[in-house]
Amino acid sequence: MARPSWDEEMRVAAITTLDSKQWVKGAQSKAFGKAFAEHCGARSATPCQNGSSALWAALRIAGIGPGDEVIVPSFTFISSTTCVLLVGAKPVFVDIESDYFCIDLEQVRQALTPKTKAVIGVHLFGQPYCSELVTFCQEHDLVLIEDAAQAHGAKQLFPDGTMRSAGAMGDIGCFSFFPSKNMAVGGEGGMLTTTQSKYEDKIFGITDHGRSPDLEAIQLGSNLRMSEVSASIGLVQLSNLDTWVELRRQKAELYTQALVGHKTLNAPAIRPNTQHAWHQYCVQTSNPDSLVAHFDSLGIDTRRYYPIPSHQQHVYKDHPQYTERLENTAIAANSLVAIPVMHELNDVETQRIVNALMSYK
Ligand SMILES: Cc1ncc(COP(=O)(O)O)c(C=O)c1O
Hints:
Blueprint: H1 8-20, H2 27-40, E1 44-48, H3 51-61, E2 69-73, H4 79-86, E3 90-94, H5 105-111, E4 116-122, H6 132-139, E5 143-147, E6 155-157, E7 163-165, E8 172-176, E9 190-194, H7 197-206, H8 228-258, E10 274-275, E11 281-284, H9 288-297, E12 303-304, H10 327-333, E13 336-339, H11 347-359
Helix pairs in contact: 1-8, 2-8, 3-4, 8-11
């Protein structure tokens, strides 16, 4: 399903950083943050330890805590929602769109209460959430936290004519560099971005014990810093990101062509005016286990995403929505199978996947 890239340039970057003995708090993390912000069009970006700590930090920076509600999609990776519990606030689960599997704006509207302080939008599988969510949050004075963990390189045309990238489609963006993601850093890693000047200093501070430049702790923070070695690898990976996303797109297009007129499988729909980052290519089927078994028999790895909606996982057993059925979430949980779409697939491997799709009855 995933094979991170590792080449001579990355190896040299990592070894050079180790040789320098500046292993933390150095020029590499600064350069990585700057380059990442430039790439996605955010005001600034701060490297951190992983996507989950980025989400926790984003909520803290937005001032979310006990008594507050945060609207989240249930159909996502678990940490998009447990971050809300970790700051003592209440996640309010909403359904997804039936076609693009991202948070459904109409459901967000209905879930709004006077206690709602923020929305966590997830660019699921690399597909941007609808641009109207941004306007909606602005109109209702809600902080929009962008879970871009799966969306490095995704873009979307906004109604005002601007093309915005993941990381600049909300107030605070959270990325993951887990090795399976569209780009990685040779270990765990994450990035916090922001489009708002009021959050810039706080974001940097929270990753460094909440300290101001003169080292006084002025907010609650922790050590969320990224190591210099990871940042130096990330810099090289970032310079390849656009090429890698294009390779993913080409593979996705081949799969979609192979699925035209298929009797039992549906290709994923792409939201108009967006550039999907194709972190995952999820095929929809009424019998996901049988599709997984078919690929298994051909020696091809697949994954079901996400068979248990977040709000129905044990950690939420005391949540009032634990037994609630969210219709589109339930359908997606019982029908999606991700097939390999990583940029590292060679032509022979890609063709094997195309053949596997076509031979499935
Ligand atoms: C949508 C989403 N959010 C958050 C995360 C958390 O990122 P990390 O694994 O780096 O903590 C992930 C990672 O898998 C993810 O896919």
